[in-house]
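Before drawing any conclusions, I needed to go through one protein's amino acid sequence and its backbone structure tokens, quoted below without any editing.
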Amino acid sequence: MNETDLGTAVGTGNDSGEADIGVIGLAVMGENLVLNMESRGFTVAVFNRTVARVDDFLAGRAAGRRVVGAHTAEAFVRSLRRPRRILMMVRAGDPVDQTIETLLPLLDPGDILMDGGNSHFADTARRAALVHGRGLLYVGAGVSGGEEGALHGPSIMPGGDAEAWPHVQPIFQAIAARVADGSPCCEWVGAGGAGHFVKMVHNGIEYGDMQLIGEVYALMRGVLGLSPAEMSDVFARWNAGRLDSYLVEITAHILKATDTVTGEPMVDVILDTAGQKGTGKWTSSTALDLGVPASTIAEAVFARCVSALKEERVTASSVLAGPQETWSGDAEAFVRDLELALYASKICSYAQGFSLLRAAAVEYGWTLDYGAVARMWRGGCIIRAAFLDDIRAAYAETPLLPNLLLAPFFRDALAEAQGAWRRVLATAVTFGIATPACSSALAYYDGYRSARLPANLLQAQRDYFGAHTFERVDQPRGKFFHVDWTGEGGDTVSTPYSV
């Protein structure tokens, strides 16, 4: 490539400045979204910091398609029709800011910058304000579905400048997954960082789902001694019923796979240490900031942290004592109990996620349509599950529902499941098998349904050592009192407040 090539648009298709949309970043998700857009009739311009990836893409998967390649940011911008629509598919963090700074001098008022990566919602809100201040529009779009979803139809959760929506809606809804009635799994979410917030909560629920499935797998293996192939059959059967979901479906496939090197079940040759990219941690820390109990999601994050302590766990396994039990019960009955326990725990995990969305809407002034969120998650995304239709229906009936657990459908489902749920966790404790997510889901349920909790004793302790005051059951809410517990205290009290 010589110097004269650097300022030109290259490749197949329309290179006369009339590309419908541009994509920056040609990793797996970026490439697949480009091919998805092109397959829907759009001409797509592409650019990548490493220019060789542009040439490789044009010569490979994009050959013969309506894809315009550019070797510089300037040529990339020139290849786009106005208002220019640019989707950034770069790594979250500084690379997004750097890409924005590169593009801003090249764009005109009314042009639209979009971030389709896993950015933190607060960063998206900051960037939206910056870009809006320059006369441009900004969209933070959560995209879920992995590489398969990106290619064939992801779930897309856009938010930011509402003025941008009419310009990006035709493209986003054309490439998104669709539910049974044909509705696209993509709707406008709200202002600022709302789109990326909804995606963050999606990922937090995903953490919970995966951990819950892993705990059930551990119980089937550790209590019943089932083989991976036998467990695969169980998950496949569950996927045909109330647990119909993408994650249960792929779990059945995973457990049936065999390692071509050793001939062993593939799952048995994978080291038991799980990685994470931070979105589950963001969900948990945001829940703490907003005072929302999202314990199942948080326990799923902590479980990955425990898994990372592989060497310590191996040492501890030979030092710390645990029970030595042998199963003597009805294996089929226990498998039925496991199905209900997993279902009930999933309901609680989703309830925590939607409660977090509700709290964020109040905190940040968003108007979120929770039924629409459930519909967007029904197809294309990682947590897609049949019971999201039931969540959508619950919010259609009661748009201001304070908690999913109160919806008649879920109330009845939990009532049906709780006996099995408790038996499963009693067995887990008896056998010494860690079930942090499933246990915390039941604790959440029991805590939420309790008219009286031991927080009265906790508040008395706080008042005793710190004069933090308390409210009385026989006085109006918001009126605070203090007791001189030792007879040696004064009248000074701490100002009551909540963090």
About this structure: The first helix runs from residue 28 to 39.
